[in-house]
Automatic annotation (TrEMBL):
Keywords: Phosphopantetheine, Phosphoprotein. It comes from the Bacteria. This is Amino acid adenylation domain-containing protein. The keyword Phosphoprotein applies. It comes from Mesorhizobium sangaii. Its cofactor is pantetheine 4'-phosphate.
Length: 1078
């Protein structure tokens, strides 16, 4: 840039927000995010020539409208005021269009113009259009880049232009206002004590390492540029607005402070945080600068507002503290965003804040425009969500949001929640913050009482032993269970279990006494289970496939009185051991005098062990009411039909095995027992299910996936198996759809539960909307309550993530042993209307969709926090499973890096191709540092994916030696080192996260590499490819994609270029070795 050019009137540094806008604009030049569009309706007649002349004069008087921005080859960007610019003014005739077509054409025109944007180093950064329609309709469109003007300045200029135009039309003299140059403000900035400002903000932002994001789901699919940004609005009516103003006046508060307090409360509810940070736009017009009110330029700045939301704080003192803090910080509002982020621990490639509040307090031009109306677009900002508040008789609120990040329905709900909080503030001025909720009464009722919390009635009365006796009487010879070539009929089951039950009672087994059963799935195990029921004991399944040490831990904790086993080596313990291997041998004892037992809902029924965080399994004690509720719900909702065949394939230590033992049997339906060998062999399992004509199957998604891989055409091989239930682990959407394509006549249900609640929610795809991004876990079953709550046990809004709690009949009695864990996980249910009601804290994150369906988002304790990012491994795994060569994936954190383990065939797997594929779909922080390939991922004995079996990836090779040196790596490496003044830069070090780079430094890299290599390297590419290796690869691919020009074409191109660009192009065509490349 030649600042001595005759066209240059002056130049000076950028104001704080201008620097941030420059970087953001260069990073995403086609986003149009900072293109401001003012549309005015003007009365006829409009003299186009006079109107254009008024604008010419305004541009001549206003340096800001003749300004361009330059950064190439400069250590710091500058803004240059030109003496002359060619005004971009067009007059359009759309009088042939009716009203609807006119509006549609205007929307297209604005969209195209926004996408076209502006080239920041080519003035003017402004466009004007006068558009004529039917019946004298005239629209004036004024577009400019926000880097030139803030809203205050735009309103001043609009007023000045209209007054000047009217004076010319009336042929009267016009005296423009006298304005001081922006140079005075820039010089004032240079006198500020930057160290004092840094100390202030470092204190305010101490410990702030993660932007406060509103945890709403992203829309399914991608928004296009044309619709990537939109808005919703709402307002308080005149009476409500006056009550809010009166509240503010009474307590010495500004309306802006009240609005910011309400926004902080809203963020607290949406993010479950007591410490929230958001951005606020400040005027940036220091009163000590003479004439500042009339200056034209970009003075505003966006600064962080940090608010502690203490639930016990009283509202008015809390708001006054917020106002005082804002007043103290006003002396330091001039610090730019790059300096602000160095005052906190936010990662360099993350936004300083995710939401922005704009309170419109500048002079309005509407009074000067008389019948002209306009709406200056002030809330557009480089954040995904911004709030614009316009005070007046009615407080008007407008939310502008990125449609690629948020759903319009969610934003409509959010603005209503903000209005609810504002209404609550003036209605309860002396309340504590805990009192205020964004939810309306109707929303709260829906979340707590309406369909998705189920019908938690009193205990379901069910006598399983009476049902079995009836079946033994009415269907004595009918098969109850089938194992290989052996059949157990109902009469034999009744007699054999009664004989064993008498032995148990003789050993002291009664209500609440545990009896362990250590046997594989077999007819003997079935008889033992029913014998425990008949003895009124507590059933304790011990899978003999488990390690002996783990079984002994379970026996030690549960303390069973009797241990029923098949096999010679039962786990050690004080229990009496009975070998049940001969329990089905013929016997004359028919148990005619069997003692009758009556099960009650509060009777302890079974113990099941689940994994514990300490490494020792924890036992869950469950009452009969849970079992009876679960059985009756399924029988009523999905009754068995004629000629059905059930299946028992779940390992006996998992709760779903209880359904397989009871559900079909007590309805007189036979059950096929799957042997241990067949249960883990997908092909053998399919053959068995087909040969036995099984009609219902419970399985984990991992096994379903294996079955589809073994036999994709499941519908043809298993035509009778139409009732499939996935449970035990999340059901991926791609697996769900894959199954539906290959077994169209079958229904795949999704069932959610844990050992502590058995089965709680159920998704029936035949009764719900189509599955898109995630398979819901559905709605609570009858008798069960489901809530999604925050850490303070408050219901969260629809679509907002919270922790899933389960209440009602599904809640177990608690854990064995010390009561601390039981008190922590089984808590009082404040919504059930009973002092004794409890609910279970699942530890799973979930959200309730607007249709009432619950979606599980993964374990709360599996969230990863890496370099200030909260990362959900399940999200990365879902993306990996969409890759063409990947069939399954798991992601874990190893030390300080993400490691992805993928199942993929060795013959087609290419880690570079997969890495490139991921870079197109995931944020940089979500990209795995290491990808490890398996033929198949390890599974637990029950078929679940086994994270604990994943091996560490081993020592990584040195980053510089990992691959052969790519073209341009030396140039990029040297550039990084020069710009950042570093001696050593490794090939895979991140420019921002590892090397300490910032946005302006990235601009210098872009500029230097573009000049040195003769290839345009946009700033956005540096942000998206932040390591030497990534950026060098991009440059190499870019150059390889540029076709070689012929000599004639090259000569024609060279003669048309300026000297500097001509030299750069010639340099780029030299052989690589002459440029010093290896």
């Amino acid at each position: 840039m030649n600042t001595n050019s005759v066209d240059v009137e002056d130049f000076w540094p950028l104001a704080p927000l201008q620097a941030a806008m420059l970087v953001a604009s260069l990073r995403a030049p086609e986003s149009g995010v900072f293109v401001q569009q003012e549309v005015m309706s003007l009365p006829e007649p409009v003299d186009a020539r006079t109107f254009q002349t008024a604008w010419h004069d305004l541009v001549r008087r206003t340096p800001a409208l003749r300004t361009s921005f330059h950064w190439q080859d400069l250590e710091q960007p500058v803004q240059v005021v030109h003496r002359h610019v060619a005004l971009a003014f067009e007059e359009l005739d759309w009088r042939n269009l009716d009203a609807a077509a006119f509006e549609a054409q205007l929307a297209r025109y604005l969209g195209d113009s926004r996408r076209a944007g502006f080239v920041l180093d080519r003035p003017p950064l402004m466009r004007l259009a006068l558009i004529r329609g039917r019946a004298g309709q005239v629209r004036f469109v004024w577009q400019f880049h926000h880097i030139l003007l803030d809203g205050w300045s735009a309103q001043l200029l609009a007023t000045e232009m209209i007054e000047h135009y009217r004076a010319q039309v009336r042929n009267i003299p016009y005296q423009p206002p006298v304005r001081r140059s922006l140079r005075h403000y820039i010089d004032w900035l240079a006198t500020r004590d930057l160290e004092a400002a840094r100390e202030y903000w470092a204190d305010v932002l101490h410990g702030y390492d993660e932007p406060v994001e509103i945890g709403l789901p992203r829309p399914f699919g991608r928004a296009t540029l044309a619709d990537a940004d939109t808005e919703v609005s709402g307002n308080l009516d005149a009476e409500e607005s006056e009550r809010l103003r009166a509240f503010a006046r009474q307590h010495g508060l500004t309306l802006n402070t009240v609005l910011q307090g309400a926004w902080a409360l809203l963020l607290g509810h949406y993010t479950d945080r007591d410490d929230v940070v958001f951005g606020a736009v400040v005027s940036g017009r220091p009163p000590e600068v003479p004439g500042i009110e009339q200056m034209i330029g970009l003075f505003i700045n966006a600064v962080p507002v940090r608010v502690r939301v203490d639930p016990q704080a009283a509202l008015v003192p809390w708001l006054k503290d917020l106002q005082s803090a804002q007043a103290r910080g006003s002396a330091f509002h001039h610090l730019d965003s790059a300096a602000l982020r160095r005052c906190c621990e936010i990662a360099p490639d993350r936004p300083l804040f995710d939401t922005l509040v704009v309170f419109e307090n500048f002079p309005q031009a509407a009074a000067k425009l008389e019948s002209a109306t306009g709406s200056l677009d002030l809330a557009r900002a480089n954040v995904p969500l911004s709030l614009l508040a316009v005070p007046g008789d009615r407080l008007h609120l407008k939310l502008r949001f990125d449609r690629s990040r948020f759903h319009g329905d969610d934003m409509g709900a959010l603005i209503e929640h903000l209005l609810n909080l504002l209404r609550g503030i003036y209605a309860a001025p002396f309340a504590t913050l805990a009192t205020f909720s964004p939810l309306s009464d109707a929303e709260r009722r829906r979340l707590i009482e309406d369909p998705n919390v189920g019908d938690a009635d009193a205990c379901v009365d069910l006598d399983p032993l009476e049902l079995l006796r009836g079946l033994a009487r009415d269907k004595a010879a009918a098969p109850a269970f089938i194992a290989d070539d052996r059949v157990l009929d109902f009469d034999t089951l009744e007699r054999a279990s009664s004989r064993l039950a008498r032995r148990l009672r003789n050993l002291g087994v009664d209500r609440g006494v545990p009896v362990a059963v250590s046997a594989p799935r077999s007819l003997e195990q079935v008889v033992a289970f029913y014998a425990v029921l008949k003895a009124h004991g507590v059933y304790l399944p011990l899978d003999p496939a488990y390690p002996r040490h783990r079984l002994e831990q379970m026996v030690a904790d549960a303390k069973p009185a009797v241990l029923l086993v098949t096999g010679p080596t039962p786990p050690d313990g004080p229990a009496t051991v009975i070998d049940i291997g001969d329990i089905l041998d013929p016997c004359s004892d028919d148990a005619a005098n069997d003692e009758r037992v009556r099960w009650r809902c509060d009777d302890p029924a079974y113990i099941v062990f689940t994994s514990g965080s300490t490494g020792r399994p924890k036992g869950v004690l469950v009452q009969w009411g849970q079992v009876s509720n679960r059985l009756v719900w399924m029988w009523q909702a999905y009754p068995f039909g004629a000629n059905e065949m059930a299946c028992q394939r779940t390992a006996i230590n998992f709760v779903d095995s209880l359904w397989e033992l009871l559900g079909a049997t007590l309805r007189g339906v036979p059950t096929t027992i799957v042997s241990e060998r067949v249960a883990t062999d997908a092909s053998a399992l399919i053959r068995l299910l087909a040969s036995r004509g099984v009609t219902r199957l419970w399985l984990v998604p991992s096994l379903l996936k294996a079955m589809l891989e073994a036999q994709p055409d499941l519908g043809r091989h298993l035509p009778r198996l139409l009732f499939w239930v996935c449970t035990g682990e999340p059901l991926p959407a791609d697996l769900y759809h894959h199954f539906r394509r290959h077994h169209a006549k079958a229904t795949l249900y999704n069932l959610y539960g844990t050992s502590e609640i058995w089965d709680a929610t159920w998704f029936d795809p035949d009764q719900e909307p189509p599955v898109l991004a995630a398979v819901p876990i559905g709605r609570p079953i009858t008798g069960v309550r489901a809530y999604v709550l925050d850490s303070k046990l408050r219901p969260v809004p629809l679509e907002v993530a919270g922790e899933l709690y389960i209440g009602g009949a599904g809640v177990a009695l608690g854990y064995l042993g010390p009561t601390d864990l039981t008190r922590e996980r089984f808590v009082a249910d404040p919504f059930a209307g009973s002092k004794t009601a409890r609910m279970y804290r699942t530890g799973d994150l979930a959200r309730v969709q607007r249709d009432g369906l619950i979606v599980c988002l993964g374990r709360r304790d599996q969230q990863i926090k890496l370099r200030g990012f909260r990362i959900e491994p399940a999200e990365i795994e879902a993306v990996l499973r969409q890759a063409p060569e990947v069939s399954d994936a798991m992601v874990v954190l190893r030390e300080d890096r993400l490691v992805a383990y993928v199942a993929a065939p060795a013959s087609s797997f290419d880690v570079r191709r997969l890495s490139a594929w991921l870079r197109e779909r995931l944020p940089h922080a979500f990209l795995p540092a290491v990808i490890v390939r398996f033929d198949a991922l390890p599974l637990t004995p029950n078929g679940k994916r086994d994270r604990l079996a994943l091996p560490p990836p081993g020592e990584l090779p040195d980053a510089g030696d990992a691959d052969p040196v790519l073209p341009f790596e030396n140039e990029v490496q040297a550039c990084f080192a020069q710009v950042l003044q570093l001696d050593v830069v490794t090939l895979d070090a991140d420019f921002f996260l590892d090397l300490g780079g910032h946005s302006l430094a990235a601009l210098r890299v872009s500029s230097r590499l573009s000049r040195q290599l003769g290839t345009d390297v946009p700033a956005g590419v540096v942000f998206d490819h932040p390591s030497v290796r990534q950026l060098a690869r991009w440059i190499a691919e870019r150059q390889a994609a540029i076709p070689e020009a012929s000599d004639d074409e090259l000569l024609e191109l060279l003669t048309s270029l300026p000297a500097a660009e001509r030299e750069a192009l010639l340099a780029s065509r030299e052989p690589a070795e002459s440029r010093g490349a290896p």
